[in-house]
Amino acid sequence: MPARLGGAGAGSAAADVSVADSPLASLESLTQAAVIAVVGIAIVISNLLIIAAFLNFKVVCAGLAHEVINYYLLSLAVADLLCGLLVVPLSVHAAAVGRWVFGGLVCRLTGYIEVTLWSVSVYTFMWISVDRYLAVRKPLRYETVSLTVQTRTRSQCWMVFTWISAAMLCCPPLLGYKKEANYDARTFICMLDWASTYAYTATLGILVLGPSLISIVYNYYYIFAMRRKLNSGAPMHDKEYATALAENLANPSHCMSFLLVAAFWLSWIPYFALQIYEYFTAPVVKVPMLHFGVVWLGILNSFWKIVILITFSPQFRLALRILCLTCCRAKSRLQAELIGMDNDD
Q1: 24 pLDDT exceeds 50?
Q2: What is the pTM of this model?
Q3: Which of 94, 150, 242, 255 could lock onto 188 through a cystine, CB 3.0 to 4.6 A?
Q4: Dist. CA 84–CA 90, nearest whole Å
Q5: How far is CA 269 from the centre of its chain?
Q6: SS3 100
Q7: 157 to each of 13, 161, 237, 295, how far by Cα in Å?
Q8: Between residues 281 and 188, which one has the greater pLDDT?
Q9: Which residues on adjacent β-strands are paired with residue 100?
Q10: CA nearest 321: which of 79, 54, 119, 125?
């Protein structure tokens, strides 16, 4: 998740930070701890299902075609799973006991993990949009194995590059450069304080948000523009290209990937809006539960992915079905039932 821009309401994690004079958590804190726990469980279970379904599908159905986008979805699922395993449990404990007890180093490390995983997600959505753009821009080459513009190896290399670059871009505060970290008692989250490093924060924003937002906006604008052009019946000079384009645009992965991107940014817009408002205005908004709500709404985006995949991805529904058959039935029965399956579920 992105870090704080600074402001009141957050305490230093160099020492234990208490949200109340009493060590016993209030009823409100326990309720918030329960909400965070439910969010964490939902994130972990949903992303474990996504990872298991795609990996099992790759093994059991090795002879079937696998979309390149599946590798990007696996990367997203791994990032969200790590958030559910490494970040959320610490917040559950902090909310339950009413204070941060893990010390400043763990607080700074948690903040680093949050920003790194968030950057990985932003970069991955950029690669997904590029993949969908190439599928529409070059439909003949994209579907031809011998001339393809997107191979499994390339997509895997992009994901390795994404994880390494995100980890390196976000590591200076962790290694001692302006290493302030704040525990926000309103949201029970440790965040790196980027307000004291304006130049580095601006540079990181340009390197992470700039290319991603520009690519996403342009690529999906092109995809929907081509869809409108095709639906309007506008003549195309190459009949073979028009046929391939029509078949490619019928792929539900375009709509599914756009909804994944939209759900991610819509989940985080309230948080960004609140942070920007508080940064440029002196008073801190003191609406009860507002800060808690916008932060955990953003983190909850890690769960909506499985809902969108089940609704809009026939291949994921097939992979999930095969996973259930693998877990519940004998291998011979599974192979018998796979004969009647196809990628249209």
Answers
A1: no
A2: 0.85
A3: 94
A4: 10
A5: 14
A6: strand
A7: 37, 6, 36, 32
A8: 188
A9: 17
A10: 54
First-to-final CA distance of the chain: 35
Greater confidence, 236 or 272?
272
Token couple for 1: 């998740």
Residue the block writes with tokens 């753009």: 133
What whole-number distance in Å separates Cα of residue 178 and Cα of residue 266?
30
**Helix H or strand E encompassing 64:** none
Q: Please write the tens of the pLDDT for every residue from 193-242.
A: 666 667 777 777 888 888 899 999 999 999 999 888 888 877 777 777 77
**Which pLDDT score is estimated for 327?**
77
130 φ/ψ angles, rounded to the nearest 5 degrees: -65, -40
* Lookup: tokens for 204: 């990181």
> CB–CB of 186/275 below 8 Å?
no
The per-type count for the chain, helices as H runs and strands as E runs, is 13, 5
In contact, 327 and 297? CB cutoff 8 Å:
no
Residue that the structure tokens 């992303």 belong to = 47
AA letter at 157:
C
Q: Are 49 and 306 in contact (CB under 8 A)?
A: yes
How far lies 329's CA from each of 34, 49, 321, 332, 336, in Å?
36, 18, 12, 8, 11
Q: Where are the beta strands (DSSP E) in 107-216?
A: 181-184, 189-192
